[in-house]
Amino acid sequence: MLTRMTWIAVDWGTSALRAALLRPGAAVEERAGGPGILAVAAGGFPAALAAFCGDWRAQYPGARVLISGMAGSAQGWALAPYCPCPAPLAQLASQVLWLEPGQLGLVPGLCDTQGPCPDVMRGEEVQVLGAMALAGAHTARVVLPGTHSKWVRLADGVITGFETFMTGEVFALLRQHSILARTLPALDAEAPWHPEAFAAGLAVAAEGSVLH
């Protein structure tokens, strides 16, 4: 029988909605394929969440719901704050935006204004905390590949800063719209892997700009 510690974790991004029914140490059930925030009309977020996992809330009325990602942006359900780095877990927890007091809340994002280029993230901070728990590493560099990849710095369990890189988006643009597009194999094709060529490319890039 599930205890009072049952809760619902929701990852609500721009183009997708995922949720997991959790209890300490285990995921009881997971769901994916729900609408991203851009597919939800203004004011329609409560109904969209209810349609996606409202049966969980009905079955376990004491379960707390925590929503991370772009649902907490200006284009989402409500605008959750950004916690400045360095950001310990306690700071994130203290700035949850509760839409239903103590029951349903939006996890804050992070901002890093320590360098010359301010940066923000929403949703990835929860992935970093999960990676830290799984790996047991409290001091590390965490890389989150994607359309806009994040490189996150961890020190003693605190997210001290991060950088965003448009690696995935640039890769997609080169594959689809550049002069190279016609010569590249399809992404699902069995292409040979050449680690030496990859390492050589990294070495050239490290020497300076290759976009001159």
Q: Any overview of this molecule?
A:
The chain has 212 residues and is α/β, with parallel strands linked by helices. It folds into two domains: 1-79, Nucleotidyltransferase, domain 5 (2-Layer Sandwich), CATH 3.30.420.300; 82-96 and 108-188, 2-keto-3-deoxy-galactonokinase, C-terminal domain (Nucleotidyltransferase, domain 5), CATH 3.30.420.310. It is built from five helices and twelve strands. Strands 3-2-1-4-7-6 form a six-stranded mixed sheet, covered by helices on one side. Strands 5-8-9 form a three-stranded mixed sheet, with no helix packed on it.
Mean pLDDT: 91
Report the CATH architecture of the largest domain: 2-Layer Sandwich
CATH superfamily of the largest domain: 2-keto-3-deoxy-galactonokinase, C-terminal domain
Total DSSP helices: 5
Short characterization:
This protein is of the alpha/beta class and 212 residues long.
Features:
Nucleotidyltransferase, domain 5, 12 strands, 6-stranded mixed sheet, alpha/beta, 26% helix, 212 residues, single chain, 5 helices
Layout of SSEs?
Layout (H helix, E strand, L loop, with lengths): L6 E6 L3 E8 L2 E10 L9 H15 L4 E5 L13 E3 L4 H6 L2 E4 L3 E3 L2 E4 L6 E3 L2 H12 L4 E5 L4 E7 L2 E8 L1 H11 L17 H12 L6
Parallel strand pairs: 1-4, 4-7, 5-8
Antiparallel strand pairs: 1-2, 2-3, 6-7, 8-9, 10-11, 11-12
